[in-house]
Design goal:
The chain has helices at about 10, 25-35, 50, 60-75, 105-120, 150-155, 155-170, 185-200, 220-230, 260-280, 325-334, and strands at about 15-20, 40-45, 75-85, 130-135, 175-180, 205-210, 210-215, 235-245, 285-290. By secondary structure, it is α/β, with parallel strands linked by helices. An 8-stranded parallel β-barrel has the order 1-2-3-4-5-6-8-9, surrounded by 6 helices. The longest helix is centred in the C-terminal third of the chain and has 20 residues, at about 260-280.
Length: about 325
């Protein structure tokens, strides 16, 4: 690692935290690189329900503890991800012993026990939690996504989740987190949902804008409009899962082994204009987290096209900064 490369997070001191989604594998493999450039961590998968609480009477804290310990050793902030999600939640949460659906009360009690055990373990160490993740339906004619949380608990499952989380750790910032958050139709549904939570006194403190964007969209105007709409609720904003895919979602090419020159130039331009915008709203945004520390650890390899490589982050597969890194750095130093 070239020690002459400036620290990314230090460039943003006084602006907002710069984070990365990590695993124990990436921390062991490239811990010094991560500690140099990031001052906030999110466990990419290892704090999700099925990973940390796979069975009713069994918790596995080994991986989560390792991530938390690394953050504490390096003075880093931590985001907890996630308590309630339709994916990566084991079926036992929603079922009785005979496999029939559990009651509303039983599911809520299991969530309460889970939160007390997991959140309670990290009080004072995890400052912000994604309490509910991706509850809005993408289809324009639907509102809430059809999930087991919705079918067993009811439409107030989000409110209940936030109230439980706040009871467990009153000091934590609690976030609703979602993707396609700049799409006008989904954006307005997210606003409607969070507004409804606030109207009944739900302890929600922020909105997580995931930021899974690409070289071609969303437009800067769409991102700006979403930021302004969400900020109008008086809540804090975190960019929680930022990456810039080299491909539009409809693009099914799979033969590229490296980014083209055009892709590299577009990536530099996109990160330049995005961070110019984000720093403009520094009074509303507390942190910007990349979903991965470098291209060698991106979830976009193989998604949505099996076997396809992607190059969505400011550091390449050898942990070296791309031209986009230097553009991001410039906005932090201004």
């Amino acid at each position: 690692m070239n020690t002459e490369i400036p620290s990314l997070h230090q460039a943003y001191t006084g602006t907002f935290k710069i984070g990365a989604a990590v695993s124990t594998r990436t921390l062991r493999r490239e811990g010094s690189f991560i500690a140099k450039h990031y001052n906030s961590l999110t466990a990419e998968n290892q704090m999700k329900f099925e990973e940390i609480h796979p069975d009713l009477d069994r918790y596995d804290f080994a991986a989560a503890d390792e991530i938390v310990d690394f953050a504490m050793q390096h003075g880093m902030a931590l985001r907890g991800h996630t308590l309630v999600w339709h994916n990566q939640t084991p079926n036992w949460v929603f079922e009785k012993e005979d496999g029939t659906p559990a009651s509303r009360e039983q599911v809520l009690e299991r969530l309460r026990s889970h939160a007390q055990t997991v959140m309670g373990r990290y009080i004072g160490k995890i400052q912000a939690w994604d309490v509910v993740n991706e509850a809005i339906e993408d289809k324009s004619e639907e509102y809430l996504r059809e999930t087991k949380w919705l079918s067993t608990v009811g439409e107030d499952y989000l409110e209940q989740a936030f109230r439980i989380a706040h009871e467990v750790d009153p000091s934590a910032q609690l976030f609703y987190n979602d993707y396609n958050e700049t799409n006008p139709v989904k954006r307005d549904k997210i606003y409607r949902l969070v507004r409804s939570l606030l109207d009944v006194g739900t302890p929600i403190h922020g909105i997580g804008m995931q930021g899974h964007w690409n070289l071609y969209g969303p437009s800067i105007d769409e991102i700006r409009e979403a930021i302004e709409l969400y900020a109008s609720l008086g809540l804090r904003l975190h960019i929680t899962e930022l990456d810039i895919s080299s491909f539009d979602f409809e693009d099914r090419r799979s033969d590229l082994k490296a980014p083209t020159d055009e892709m590299a130039q577009r990536l530099t331009h996109r990160y330049d204009e995005i961070f110019k915008l984000l720093t403009e709203y520094r009074s509303e945004i507390d942190s910007v987290t990349f979903w991965g520390a470098a291209d060698n650890g991106t979830w976009l390899d193989g998604f949505p096209v099996r076997g396809r490589l992607n190059w969505p982050l400011p550091f390449d597969r050898e942990l070296q900064p791309k031209p986009s890194f230097w553009k991001i750095l410039e906005h932090g130093q201004r």
